[in-house]
Amino acid sequence: MPALANLGLSTRRYALGLGFALEGLKYFKYWVAAALVLSFAVPLIVSQYTDITLSAWFYTANAGKWFTAFVGGGFVYTLVPTMVAAGLTRRELAVSMGVFGLLWSLLLGAIAFAGILGERAYYGALGWSQGLDAGDVIAPIGTLGDTAAFAAHYPLLYLVYFLAGTVIGIASYRWEASGWLLLVPIIPVVFSLDNGLYRTEPVGPGWAGFLGLFMDDWARWFIVAAIVVVAAGLAAAAYRILIDVPLRSKQA
Questions:
Q1: What is the SS3 assignment for 139?
Q2: Is residue 133 within 8 Å of residue 53, measured between CB atoms?
Q3: What residues form the membrane-spanning segments (predicted)?
């Protein structure tokens, strides 16, 4: 990633956001590769003992959402003192994190999208059923078009998880003792919207998605719109906290 001194003042915030995304993907590339291998190898092993009726990639992609939240929170928590000490303003860092979040979500969303389509072809070739655990029944995802439509929301979901992690991360830096408590209202809202969108429980604690029980009758487009609104609110909250965060001097 280029040094701040080598970047123009007017564009360095965007260049850094791009750099964060590329370096993050480069750093975690083996994690992504391992997820791909395991998602396609484990069903092959399990098929020796039982019929395959569940999409392994669905659960891998959901675990990736939590991973994305940790990336957003971990990066901002670490970068605040480092980048500001290097000469970047808080406002520039906020914009850089926004660019990072958008690109990271698009990159991982594209991987998730390609992965579930690849899994569909893989399962079809082996005569398996690509379905979801919808409580009492296994619900098949459906045709190729259904699968593509199902996966189309991944970039948006990754973005809202990234923003949720970022808000919690910067709040934890801003208010050391109590900032992490923001996860109490944030997690149920984000998790429940995810749950409501797919009509199934994503990977994670079931209690966190309890609000999804009230979304059974909501139209899919309405839930997507709600996710966009929540993402915008989280972005505004992260920006507001970050530009006002005080820097703590190191203790001697």
A1: strand
A2: no
A3: 27-46, 66-86, 93-117, 156-173, 180-198, 218-242
Q: Which region, left, alpha or beta, applies to residue 87 given φ > 0 means left and ψ of -120 to 50 means alpha?
A: left
Please give the model's pTM, rounded to 2 decimal places. 0.89
Q: What's 131's DSSP letter? A: E
pLDDT one-digit tens code per residue, 178-214: 888 888 889 888 988 888 887 766 556 666 666 766 6
Terminal C-alpha separation, the chain: 31
At 74-116, the pLDDT tens digits run 999 888 888 877 777 888 889 999 999 999 999 999 999 999 9
Using CA atoms, how far apart are residues 238 and 173, in angstroms rounded to an integer?
A: 12
Count the neighbouring beta carbons within 10 Å of the beta carbon of residue 36. 16
> Contact at 8 Å (CB) between 25 and 100?
no
Tokens of 203: 């990977």
Find residue 29's DSSP bridge partners. Answer: none
Cβ proximity of 94 and 166 under 8 Å: no
